[in-house]
Amino acid sequence: MKKELSLLEPSDILKFDQETSSIPGIIKLTLGEPDFNTPEHVKEAGKKSIENNRSHYAASSGTIELRRAFSHFMEVKYGLDYKPEDEILVTAGATEAIYTILGSILNPGDKVLIPTPIFPLYIPVTLLNGGEPVFLDTSKNGFVLSPDVLSEALDKHGDAVKAIIFNFPTNPTGVTYRREEIKALVDVLKEHDVFVISDEIYSELTYGEGHVSMAEYIPKQTILINGVSKSHAMTGWRIGFICGPADIMTKMGMVHQFTITSAATIAQDAAQEALENGMDDGAEMRVQYQKRRDFVYQKMVELGFNCPKPEGAFYLFPEIPEGLIQNSLDFCIDLAHKAKVAVIPGDSFGPGSEGHFRISYAASMETLKEAMNRIGEYVKKNKKSEESLR
User: Fold this and answer.
1) CATH 3.40.640.10 fits 53-277, yes or no
2) Which of 66, 68, 61 lies closest to 49, judged by CA?
């Protein structure tokens, strides 16, 4: 067995979701998956692809039609210029994109800077490919990496740093980076020879200011991840994208080719329809997510939970208030059994996450209202008074 496998453990998120699923009457606000259906015109394109016997291998890098559609999408939405012929790679979702990138660039002992809290998948994939995660705790800075902390980490670890990973809007906090914050980070990054892996899968789900990509400022340094899973409610279709400079993409294409050959042709045809004729399909979903965000955020604040107001994605990351169980895993287990509401313990998301938990509000308003009522009753019955804590 590969020695790095000894460093891995099963996904905490999936494990906790499975364990709480057996509780009768449980409301699950656990997984990061849109509760909307794939748009009808996209489903029809998938059916047509089947009827037209599009069941054979596509080009390993993806159909040229899909790559052209995605290139156009990125130009219109974010002002980015990626050539479909050699700067875009179609992957089996963003998950395979993460593996392909890290599997391509890491040598044993290379260090990867990972601002936390963050989606935990990057950590085991770094370990599996011989890399060493270096965590940058952002919890004291509103869950945003500061240029000073970044500069200090790059200076401290020097040439051993191969890459830094950004994920924004961020899972699990819903926080994103504004233009001025990206500019400040870019001023640091462009002085160092490191890859900037920018996972922007939630780019279409931002509230307020529009999404700004890292690649707008340092395209030669950035390896961009995106896809249609969140923007078009197509998680099960498994279509993601990697974008980057042609010389880097050629090498990554080889790792991708030797790993999965190619993404499913039928799914690629559906994704092409989504991008060509449904460029703004995510807009109505975003409106609904924002209404849910406003409702859940307000309710949690009223119940005494402190958390940043999400600016994107569909997550809330509340801090457990005094008077309740402080260990995040124990709190979430107790909440699941007593209130019949399942959320994800904060310790799943790296340093700076303990004492918090993640709520996914990718659920109907009716479900969210009932969940908030249950959490409210739980707080009322279980929170100890300030006097008893003295």
Assistant:
1) yes
2) 66
If residue 243 lies in a helix (H) or strand (E), which one and from where to where?
strand 240-243
| DSSP code string of 200-217 | -TTTT-B-SSPP--GGGT
Length reported for the chain: 390
CATH code 3.40.640.10 region(s) in the chain: 53-277
Q: In terms of pTM, does the model score above 0.85?
A: yes
Q: Which CATH number describes the domain made up of 3-37+282-382?
A: 3.90.1150.10
93-106 in b/e form (b: 16+ CB < 10 A) is bbbbbbbbbbbbbb
Question: Are 342 and 17 spatial neighbours (Cβ–Cβ below 8 Å)?
Answer: yes
Q: Are 16 and 348 in contact (CB under 8 A)?
A: yes
How far is 371 from 299, CA to CA, in rounded Å? 10
Cα 232 from Cα 260, distance rounded (Å)? 23
Q: Which two tokens stand for residue 162?
A: 């191969």
Residue entry with tokens 């975003």: 286
d(CA 324, CA 16): 20
What pairing do the DSSP bridges indicate for beta strands 88-91 and 195-199? unpaired
Instruction: Determine contact, residues 358/316, Cβ cutoff 8 Å.
Output: yes
* Amino acid in the structure at residue 326: Q
> What is the chain's percent helix, strand, coil content, to nearest 5?
45, 15, 40
Q: What are the average pLDDT values for consecutive 10-residue runs of the chain, which has 390 residues?
A: 72 83 95 95 98 97 98 98 98 98 97 97 96 98 97 97 98 97 98 98 95 98 98 98 97 96 98 98 96 98 96 98 96 97 95 97 97 98 65
Give first-to-last CA distance, the chain, whole Å: 52
Nearest to 354 by CA among 375, 382, 334, 326: 326
Cβ-contact 215, 198 below 8 angstroms: yes
Please give the pLDDT value at position 57: 97
